[in-house]
Amino acid sequence: MNSANMNDFSMDSRSLAGAFSAKLSAAREAGFSEITLCAQDLVGHPDGVDAAITCVRASGLAVTGFQAACDFEGQTGPLHAFKLDLAQAMLRLCQALRCPLLVLPASRLPGATDDAHAAARDLRQLALLAIPLNIKIGYQGWAGGAVAQTYLQAWDRVCEVDMPNLGLSLDSQDVLAANTPQDDLLADLEMLDPDRIFLVQVTDLLATAGQTLRVLPGDGSHHEALAALVTSLHGLGYRGGYNLAAFNDDYAAMPAQHVARRARDAALWLGQDVLQRSVPLPNQIRLRRSLAAQVSKAS
Length: 299
What we know:
Blueprint: E1 9-12, H1 20-29, E2 34-38, H2 39-43, H3 49-59, E3 62-67, H4 77-96, E4 101-105, H5 118-130, E5 136-140, H6 151-161, E6 166-171, H7 172-178, H8 182-189, E7 197-202, E8 204-208, E9 211-215, H9 223-235, E10 242-244, H10 249-252, H11 256-275, H12 282-298
Parallel strand pairs: 1-2, 1-10, 2-3, 3-4, 4-5, 5-6, 6-7, 7-10
Antiparallel strand pairs: 8-9
Helix pairs in contact: 1-3, 1-11, 5-6, 8-9
């Protein structure tokens, strides 16, 4: 059931229930060749981290990204030292998985807002530590972040740091929840450098009982908006991967194979029906970048 389009998509382990080995098998059987993992996948394995890494390699799945929610940036003193040690441990796990990308959500800690430049300082430090390991850092804004609540705020931090291996991990939930009109959204996206978007996490949203659930594309109510987002990113030159990162209590109650098959259907819809409809405009993209370069030189 594999298709060339499936290679653009990774299954997020957090979307699947059950034992780690079952998650890997479900993703592989559904036709995925790549998966995104988190630290809990490894440290929670009953036989330890090394056994978990062996499991990943035996599965044949490539690890697209490694989620590291460690509230890293913006701290000082002993807390900074503690968080730095934790972040370095995340980098070592990422390297052991032969994973090229560490996904770093913005810190939730309120103390991170005390110094406007502290976050940039720490992100630069982490990026420097990641260079010898050949690992990129995908910084991600989110609603619960203290430093960056949106992708545009995260992008500001990335630009301030200006390191080649520090870029953006863009979560579609951030975009969909804002309900930005399409013209304004395109203007916002045009401020990003598509080469510095390292991963796009794709999820749909579903409102129920006063809550907003992260669900797979096809299960939510933002079908058209999600297609427009993916099409816009493609038209602007993004050619990186898409991670199907949708998780909720309902998916957690379903067999991993069932959710993985739903994710496969979502990937095929996005890959075949949406992305293959997207007609890149290479001349216009080159013109936009050329103009941007001219403005940069002029300033």
